[in-house]
What we know:
By secondary structure, this protein is of the alpha+beta class. It has helices at residues 12-28, 31-37, 60-79, 104-107, 114-126, 144-152, 173-179, 196-207, and strands spanning 87-92, 95-101, 135-140, 157-162. Helix 6 (144-152) links the parallel strand 3 and strand 4.
Amino acid sequence: MTSMHDEARGGDADTAKLLLARRDLLLTGTAAAAASILPATASFAEAPNSHSMSVLPTTDEGRAFMTMALEKMRQAGVVDKTGGPFGAVVVLDGEVLAIAGNSVMSDNDPSAHAEVNALRVACRKLGSPHLKGAIMYSSCEPCPMCFSTAYWARVAKIFYAASYADYADLFDDANIAKDLTLPYEERQVAMQQIMRPDAQKVWDEFRRTPGGARY
């Protein structure tokens, strides 16, 4: 079992628009939000996926990587019982950077999904929060959190085996994805905005901070 323990700039208005668009993409996963992001300003990395990566042929090598993910899926969920039956493999230029299973129960960490665990290990291995050009093989369709993490990591492509429908009786992935399309006040975890002007002051200060993080 490999757990998490194994291991760009225009004007202020343009920047704010880009940040809001990115937020909308992560919250809704809609193509419309993605379109509103592009083209990104020079200070931000390009969107992780290109249309040339949208459909790729299934190769023997790809099946081998997915087999690794499926083996880790079974190990995590059936053998070690560290969490749900989920496994993931991160590959860059044909090299396996990380293999991880779900460790939500063993780590007492609700974010310790297989994909997140694998992405963390891979990023630490490269010494970067970005995995541009990497391909992830997931035993199951990534939940919104795992997809968002892959997005931020600049993963180029995700192959998955089981669909949400295959385990909808056991896990809430499809419900979460649907919930994110609802207005804030109607979501399972309701969201309400307060003290926006105070937060905006910090954003203004951050914009003026030399060497501030841009990812």
